[in-house]
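lol so apparently i was supposed to do this last week
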Amino acid sequence: MMINITLPDGSLKQMPKGSTAYDVAMEISEGLARNVLAAKVNGEVVDASRAINEDASLQLFTWNDTEGKAAMWHSSAHLMAEAIEQLYPGVKFGIGPDVENGFYYDIDFMDYSISESDLEKIEKRMLELAKEKQVLIRREVSKKEALDFFTKKGDEYKLELINDLEDGSITFYQSGTFTDLCRGPHMMHTGPIKAVKLLNIAGAYWRGDEKRKQLTRIYGITFPKKKELTAYLELLEEAKKRDHRKIGKELELFAFSDKVGKGLPLWLPKGAMLRERLENFLKKVQKRYGYQPVITPHIGQKELYVTSGHYAKYGEDSFQPIHTPAEGEEFLLKPMNCPHHCEIYRNKPHSYKDLPIRYAEFGTVYRYEQSGELHGLTRVRGFTQDDAHIFCMPSQVKDEFKKVMDIIELIFSALDFNDVTVQISLRDPNNKEKYIGTDENWALAENAIKEVAEERGIPAIIEYGEAAFYGPKMDFMVKDAIGRKWQLGTIQVDYNLPERFELEYIGADNEKHRPVMIHRAPFGSMERFVAVLIEHCAGNFPLWLTPDQVIILPISEKYQKYAEKVLTLLENADIRAQIDDRSEKTGRKIRDAEMKKIPYMLIVGEKEEEINTVSIRKHKEGDLGTKSISDFIADIIEETENIYK
Ligand SMILES: [Zn+2]
Ligand SMILES: [Zn+2]
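anyway here it is w/ zinc ion bound
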């Protein structure tokens, strides 16, 4: 019996029934077969060794695919568990999934004590086991069989997991001496694992519940080549140097205080001024694009968020309502600015001639993140969105999208993010009843988004079924200087809030209509954006943004007066400058200025004073020669004004 296998390029392969993805790969080339780590058969990712019994579409995954990496890392979690079980007999296992970069396993080490220094021993054992090319054998088991196995083994964590599963859906995977409850998929055997690094140990409550036992979570990563591990460790080292928490402290940009509260950033003067410059930049651009500023309070009545639907989403799991002396009165810290802006729209009647209306606010919102999730400025409990809401007619969505894209592109170019991609989230075309809003409006908005991305030539990934129930959206991803991807700004179309708040405009037909609402935040939030920016530029901010643009270095006390004259001229031109008037050698002053990442150093002495010039050094570049003060000022102004073009 033969079956038809359709490959992604549309080509067809006839294979005997029961062939595996691996067999199909062998038909194509032996090299490909060697590298196959998993496969997608009729839309489901499975082991490459699974028999295919019907006509199927097939996609093969190697190390170059996310799914291939996931299969290898997930299999590596099994490998680590096997090594650990051999080294520490009797330990019990929680869960061991693959993650974005590697894998982890949560383990109850019972009476053993385990620390970072034990990891090398486990890595070594893992590599020995990997070399055995242990086959990961899948077996379907009944619930009873599964319970019997782990009762006998004495692993209450696995028993608890099995109890939550349906009989008939349970599978075991065995590799070497280790058998695990697992759905898969896995790689076929452990042979391709050629490099192992266990990265760290952390505590993790069983099932994320603080009332239950704390297990030991060991994170690791594996690679098919040693040199890939070396490159990855170098990247980690580089990332550590760029960690925004470290640089933020060194440059005195922000701080946290347990007394104020976890996850509530305190912007220090230099950080606050930097943030203000970012805000002013965006305000200036937004003004050009017809945005109007609004300001709304940090709290709102509970009913406001019940109307918007945010209470259902954030009410239970976030900051609890604020009570007042008045009976039954409740306020919420705002988790979103949108409801306030809807009420501003409702403040007066609108005609189609008024649209689009664009309300912008740097609005601070509060959401209660779990303390374990908090991380520097990227995950906080209070943050300021560079928020705006556009109210427009359905026919205006495309034009508005274009304008928002203009703004976002201007921002990315002003901050040297040069590798930008977008993800477009659309409706699931087979499940349209899930979404609110008319078919016609969805089609209009979805086509508009796709067309705008295409017209701009921005690489776009289209995800069907990823749209929110209330509208399609576009997310912006940037690649930073060391190749990491970050999600920043978003544009979101919304048919829901205008409905809930009964927003209206009078059309050309003199009838009442619902406007479409577009939420957009190019930075996302000021906190997250500044964090990503710091890690991208390693604290070497663009000239227009950096806290100190210029430092004047008089070569001796004798030239202090002249240095002050230069400083006054710079300050009059709104250039941020200071004098290093310490009685240190010039070489030392230059080194210190380099450490502080100040872009321009102006060295002044007798020669400079005589003819009203400055000797210029640029951060990381060195000597740029001598210029008159006015020429230097003109250059700086030009360099900083360039961002608006
Ligand atoms: Zn598994
Ligand atoms: Zn919004």
